[in-house]
Design brief:
Elements: E1 12-16, H1 21-33, E2 36-39, H2 46-56, E3 60-64, E4 66-68, E5 73-75, H3 76-86, E6 98-101, E7 118-120, H4 121-125, E8 143-148, E9 158-162, H5 163-176, E10 185-186, H6 195-207, E11 211-212, H7 226-230
Parallel strand pairs: 1-2, 1-3, 3-6, 6-7, 10-11
Antiparallel strand pairs: 4-5, 8-9
Helix pairs in contact: 2-3, 5-6
């Protein structure tokens, strides 16, 4: 990401993905190099995504071929294309690079020919130029992520959280509230599109050296017992 797309410390990256593990890897990759990630809930339509793209001004969007729900498949790439066409403030929005994770379950859902603006994740990570980037040494107050409010009371508002604050706060919380330690397993039934997902699916458990569970789907489909089966 750093070399291929020239993402530098302080740049913004939008992540628009379903609940797949690659989404967490994208968040952690941004944190490693000092880029500021902004995860947009994968259930949002093109207009909502466009609003957040216009405000965050990213240099890259990381997305997925599709989201898989019990009764339907959601194509993500066309939604991203439409959102970029709707952007009013993002310069050259339609030329924004997209890093696309092509899911093996439904690979046919990438319908555009891959080119300089559509980069296949699996192909890209095999390129020799994609060496593991060194960790950036950052001040405590360096931005970790921007997460937008739902916009129900007006325009979505970007809430910024810092690297050091987030790490210290979540380490304390996971240890003293949830009694989570190295080797433990944590399951939060939420989505990385929300702050609960940032805190209690990705950063919190991993800071404690625990295993975290990703769940894609609805908590009552096919029935309300699905949560207990996961547990």
């Amino acid at each position: 990401m750093k070399e291929k797309f020239n993402i530098e410390r302080g740049d913004r990256v939008v992540i628009y993905m379903p609940m797949v593990s690659v989404a967490a890897w994208a968040m952690l990759a941004c944190a490693r190099i000092g880029a500021i990630h902004s995860v947009v809930f994968g259930g949002f339509a093109a207009k909502e995504l466009a609003n957040r793209l216009d405000d965050s001004q990213p240099k890259l969007i990381i997305t997925c071929s599709c989201g898989i729900e019990p009764r339907k498949v959601i194509k993500y790439v066309p939604i991203v294309d439409e959102a970029l066409s709707l952007c009013e403030k993002l310069e050259n929005a339609t030329e924004l690079p997209r890093l696309i994770y092509n899911r093996s379950e439904k690979p046919e859902y990438i319908e555009r020919k891959l080119n300089e603006f559509y980069v296949d994740y699996e192909v890209a990570i095999k390129e020799k130029e994609w060496d593991i980037a060194e960790c950036e040494h950052l001040p405590t107050n360096h931005e970790l992520y921007i997460l937008y409010t739902s916009g129900t009371t007006g325009a979505p508002k970007g809430v910024v959280r810092a690297q050091g604050d987030t790490a210290v706060g979540l380490n304390y919380c996971m240890k003293n509230v949830f009694d989570l330690h190295q080797g433990g397993v944590h399951f939060a039934c939420s989505d990385i599109g929300w702050v609960v997902g940032h805190s209690f699916i990705v950063y919190g458990p991993l800071i404690r050296g625990a295993t975290t569970i990703f769940f894609e789907g609805k908590p009552i489909v096919p029935d309300a017992g699905v949560m207990w089966r996961v547990c």
